[in-house]
Inverse folding.
């Protein structure tokens, strides 16, 4: 009787365990969905298009890039939250992922409990740019121009984006009163800046660099501690305002709770993709710096940016739009 009981118990345990093991071993057995929570043409979309083919080769499945713009990346993050933690739905998050909960009302997720922060993939400097017709050549002239014209409009890739944070920090440092115009990504922001509908913006250098080089807009400073190798003649904000540093970053996020084997396969495939020479060359050409961090380092960056935004909200420099 005892022997039969043990056999039945073992059979029941195997019946529950083997399908899970088989699922992990079989991953991926279908295309992987990669959500881009911004419009096509921006830095996040650029990143997805840069890595998708090589990543698909590493995983042995096609990568389906899906743009879900809106609410500073929150609509795409909400879509990820509704996905299963099976490795088939992933998100490329912008820096706004860390701070949206301070700004966007009624988020359908918990920023720190509902997501698995897998890897900070790349960073790119934010560049402070002005439309060509703006009669300024440097930061001091821009500040004087803005103080003489309270309410001047500036753009960002979305509420709580790095561009929004940097502009808010500039307002604190220089006592400015400006009007924020949030966009659904860098591409529509770029269009309005080139069209003269807004005067200036902080935006990812990866998107703005071709237009700066073509003479279609003026670069005033970059939001990194040191100058950019792509624009060595343009000063770093840290030179002009000590301690000013807030780049754009893009990272890989999944739903919480993936199986350990599936998670390990995802991380391995992304790490190999980021080390691929052709991928690395494309990122360098587009002003991205590869990080490919550990999950722990990525989570630390998210918490750091959360504190920066918490301070801006406390100061009432940034509020819900």
């Amino acid at each position: 009787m005892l022997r039969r009981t043990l056999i039945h118990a073992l059979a029941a345990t195997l019946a529950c365990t083997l399908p899970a093991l088989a699922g992990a071993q079989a991953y991926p057995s279908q295309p992987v969905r990669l959500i881009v929570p911004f419009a096509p043409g921006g830095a996040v979309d650029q990143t997805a298009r840069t890595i998708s083919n090589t990543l698909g080769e590493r995983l042995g499945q096609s990568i389906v890039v899906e743009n879900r713009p809106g609410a500073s990346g929150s609509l795409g993050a909400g879509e990820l939250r509704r996905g299963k933690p099976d490795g088939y739905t992933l998100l490329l998050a912008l820096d706004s992922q860390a701070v949206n909960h301070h700004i966007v009302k009624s988020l359908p997720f918990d920023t720190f409990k509902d997501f698995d922060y897998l890897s900070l993939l790349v960073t790119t400097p934010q560049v402070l740019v002005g439309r060509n017709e703006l009669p300024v050549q440097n930061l001091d002239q821009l500040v004087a121009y803005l103080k003489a014209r309270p309410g001047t409009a500036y753009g960002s890739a979305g509420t709580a984006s790095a561009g929004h944070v940097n502009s808010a920090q500039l307002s604190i440092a220089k006592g400015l009163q400006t009007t924020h115009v949030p966009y659904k990504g860098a591409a529509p922001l770029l269009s309005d800046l080139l069209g003269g509908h807004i005067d200036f913006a902080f935006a990812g250098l990866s998107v703005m660099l071709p237009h700066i080089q073509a003479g279609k807009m003026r670069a005033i400073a970059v939001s990194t501690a040191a100058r950019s190798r792509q624009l060595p003649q343009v000063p770093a904000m840290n030179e002009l305002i000590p301690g000013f540093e807030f780049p754009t970053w893009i990272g890989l996020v999944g739903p919480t709770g993936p199986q350990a084997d599936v998670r390990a396969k995802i991380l391995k495939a992304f790490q190999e993709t980021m080390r691929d020479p052709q991928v690395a060359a494309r990122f360098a050409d587009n002003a991205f710096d590869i990080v490919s961090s550990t999950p722990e380092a990525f989570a630390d960056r998210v918490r750091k940016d959360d504190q920066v935004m918490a301070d801006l909200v406390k100061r009432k420099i940034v509020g819900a739009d």
In short: Residues 126-240 form a domain with the D-Maltodextrin-Binding Protein; domain 2 fold (CATH 3.40.190.10). The first helix runs from residue 2 to 26. Residues 131 and 193 are 6 Å apart (CA to CA).
